[in-house]
Amino acid sequence: MNIHEYQAKEIFAEYGVPTPKGKIANSVEEAVENAKELGGPVWVVKAQIHAGGRGLGGGVKLAKSLDEVEKYAQEILGMTLVTHQTGPEGKLVQKVYIEDGADIKDELYLSVVLDRAQEMPIIMASTEGGMDIETVAEKTPEKIIKVTIDPSIGFQGFHGRELVFGLGITDKNEQRKMIDFASKLYKLYMDKDAEMIEINPLVKTGSGDFIALDGKMGFDDSALGRHPELEAMRDISEEDPDEREAAQYGLSYIALDGEIGCMVNGAGLAMGTMDTINYMGGTPANFLDVGGSANAQTVAKGFEIILKNPNVKAIFVNIFGGIVRCDRIANGILEATKLVDVHVPVVVRLDGTNAPEAAEILKNANIANVIPATDLADGAAKAVAAAKGEL
Fold it and tell me: Same structural domain for residues 189 and 289?
C-alpha cells in the first residue's frame, strides 16, 4: 500500500524526521487559506498522487505570492498528471499540498528499501538528489551508496559513518545530523513494516540542517492488520479498481501491458508462466494468482477481471493442483463461460490433484474456444499462437 507525500510527512513528524511545514488542500480556496496560515513569503504547490516525477509533469510549482498560489492550485487541481510512473493515462489530481519554501544549499537522495538478494534492508543514498534514481543508476552508478543493515543488530554507528563518508560529508556537525536522520528513517522503516521509504530530494539547508523535501512510502499489505493507523491512510481512488476488486475475492492481480491473460495458482508458478510466455515470443497482460482456496466463483471472477482489459487476445490457465483441485478450476472455467462473455481463446493446462477428472469435465463441456495443453511450454506456445490468431 502506498500513501501520499503529505501523509508520509505526518509519519516523518512522529519520528522526528525534519520536514518543511505544510498543509493539505482539497480546493483552491483552501490552498490560499493554507498559504496564509503558513505565512510565506514563498510556497510550493504540490500535486498529491501516488507517483514520482510530479515536478517534471507540471505538478509542482513555486509560488512567490498568494495570487500565484491561487493560480497554480487552480491549474493543478483537477488536472490529469502524466509522469514516467503513471503511464500515458496519467492520474487525476484531487489534492494539493501547500508547503513552505526551503533554503536549499545541496540536494541529496536517501531511501530505505529491501535488498531481496541479501534479504536485508539497505540504505541507499546519492549526491545526485532531485534526479530519477534509475537515471543515476544507469549513467553514474558509482554515485549510489548502499549500506546493508542486518536487522538482528539494527542501525549502528558504523553504518552511519559508511553513509556520511560515502556522501562526502566532512563537517562533523553535519555528519552527526545525517547519521541521526538516517537512524530515524531506518527505525520508521522497521516499526511500520515498510517496503520502501524514499526522500528525493533530501536537502541540506544553508545552516547545515537536513530536511525531507519530499517523501514516498510503501507498506507491506500483509502487515496492515497490525497497523490500523496506516490502513486509515489508504486512498482507494489512487489504486487500480480491478486490483481492489480481485483482492475482495482473494485473488492477487496486477495489470500489465501485454496481450495474454494469465490465470495461475501460486506466485512462483505465475512468475514462471509469465517468463515462459515472454520466452515464447508473447507478452503477459497480467499477474493473477488464484491461490489455494480457489473455487468456481473465484475462477469466474478471475476471467471477468482479465477480460476487462481490451488488449487481451488469449488467456492461459496454468494450474498445478496441490491444495487447489483441478476439477474446481475446470468447473470455474465452465462457470465463467456462463457468466462472462469469454470471447478469446483459452489455453488450459491442468496437472496434479484431480487432473484427469478436470480433463473429462472440459472435454464433455465441448467449449469451442478452450484449447488443452500438456505442459507449461506447450501451453505458453499455444497461448502465444492463439493471441496471434494462429490457432
Answer: no
Catalytic residue chosen out of the listed positions 198, 259, 304, 335: 198
364 and 273, same structural domain?
A: yes
Q: Return the ∠ at Cα 82 (arms to 1 and 5), rounded to 5°.
A: 40
* In contact, 12 and 19? CB cutoff 8 Å: yes
Q: CA distances (Å), 179 to each of 167, 174, 275, 283, in order?
A: 11, 9, 42, 45
The rounded Cα 363 to chain-centroid distance in angstroms is 41
Candidates 33, 31, 63, 64; CA nearest to 48 is: 31
Q: What phi-psi label fits residue 51: left (phi over 0), alpha (psi between -120 and 50 degrees) or beta?
A: beta
Is the model's pLDDT at 210 over the cut of 70? yes
Among residues 190, 222, 237, the one where a domain terminates is 237
Are 109 and 197 in the same domain?
yes
| CATH code assigned at 84 | 3.30.1490.20
Instruction: Kindly calculate the radius of gyration of the chain based on its CA atoms and give it in whole angstroms.
Output: 25
Domain CATH code at residue 313: 3.40.50.261
Cell of 34: 493554507
**Residue with grid cell 508520509, as numbered in its chain:** 8
pTM: 0.77
Q: Are residues 250 and 187 in the same domain?
A: no
**234-244: per-residue pLDDT in tens?**
988 887 788 88
Q: How many CB atoms lie within 10 A of CB 25?
A: 23
* 383, 281 Cβ separation under 8 angstroms: no
Task: Please state, in angstroms and as integers, the Cα–Cα distance from residue 101 to each residue in 54, 97, 247, 310, 345, following that order.
Answer: 17, 12, 40, 45, 57
* Number of folded domains that form the chain: 3
Question: Do the beta carbons of residue 66 and residue 32 sit within 8 Å?
Answer: yes
Cα 307 → chain centroid: 23
Of 6, 97, 109, 253, catalytic: 109
Query: Are residues 115 and 96 part of one domain?
Result: no
Phi-psi domain of 339 (left: phi exceeds 0; alpha: psi -120 through 50; beta: other)? alpha
Q: Is 249 a catalytic residue?
A: no
Q: Per residue in 311-356, pLDDT tens?
A: 999 999 998 877 778 888 888 888 778 877 888 999 999 888 888 9
- The domain of 312 spans 240-387
CATH number at residue 175: 3.30.470.20
pLDDT tens across 257-310, in order? 899 999 998 889 999 999 999 999 999 999 999 876 666 777 888 888 999 999
